[in-house]
Amino acid sequence: MPPPHVNTTNSYSKRKEINHRDFREREGERERRLYEDRSMEGGVEESSQTRIMVGVNESTIKGYPHASISSKGAFEWTLSKIVRTNTSAFTLLFLHVQVPDQDGFDDMDSIYASPDDFKKLNRRNKIRGLHLLEYFVNRCHEIGVPCEAWIKKGDPKEVICHEVNRVQPDMLVVGSRGLGPFQRVFVGTVSEFCAKHAECPVITIKRKVDEAPQDPIDD
Amino acid sequence: MPPPHVNTTNSYSKRKEINHRDFREREGERERRLYEDRSMEGGVEESSQTRIMVGVNESTIKGYPHASISSKGAFEWTLSKIVRTNTSAFTLLFLHVQVPDQDGFDDMDSIYASPDDFKKLNRRNKIRGLHLLEYFVNRCHEIGVPCEAWIKKGDPKEVICHEVNRVQPDMLVVGSRGLGPFQRVFVGTVSEFCAKHAECPVITIKRKVDEAPQDPIDD
Description:
Chain A is an alpha/beta fold.
């Protein structure tokens, strides 16, 4: 049975409903909670809300399920400076893009003997991503901000711009490590690319200087 | 007598108080209204508000006191997508930068015979700028959003970044004509410079395609 809410963008809605039902059947409690959080929107007419997409990723130091410093910063900035106490007027859309190669690294010692092993790996990665999203969704739930969260695979900067096109949020918030021009040459910046190419207003939140780890490329 | 409100940034506050008293004495009713709008802030603790600076300029087609299409767009976007009904939680800070040379053009036929003539010209330009700001301040007043507005002279992109540094808003909103790369080479874009150099989060609001005038360089 389809969920009770109605989404303005039909194809988007349909795809997500299927995704969410899929998750729920396979993963149980965690997905159910993510799903229920989604359905909170039902109480507010969606067309009247400001939909803010927030790109989030995992910590390069602690790994999953920990969020990167700049993701957390961008999220908290959005809550304190834009959403404030007007929690029902906004919907936060959390997009986590998993980089396929990078996610395989932790499994270097595993043995892959059958196609099923790869399925398990994919499933494990997805669960890790869901753990990351859970942090943001729980935080929104606590303070009563409607939200949605989903995972995509690919090159973060390209996938984010593609998802902006598809979902058409009112704005995109991305965190940035605030690297200097020299460091940027080596690591590339997702935020810079999105600010230039995403088809919606983009706001880049630089990591606070006192929150930067020893190596500023970490996050 | 100084106005009854207290501003958190002392030097900023002091300078503006002087400006406003100055205006009031010289210009009368219009400045008094701008001034009173400023003092609306007194009711809300300023440190708890989100301070959004909006760069505004005059229409290239209609001239003063008409605001440019992209300024209006950036302003209306801020109201509808961020401020929404939470009007007392935000303070809008309108900065209008006058380009000295450009403003002199209209006075090509005037005769300057004494230093006083130049003073009059300066005063006339200032009044034109105030008329522009009045539009934004009146609009805020109507819907109950606290605001401040002031004029500076110089190169818009540099002055805006300098004022961000001085006033330290939570974010800067700038409109953009949304020109293509070829057109940008000739006109330069204030928004691009600010997004790169301003020391606060910057959000660029592109002019809607259907609002663009016949020549997209106009605004």
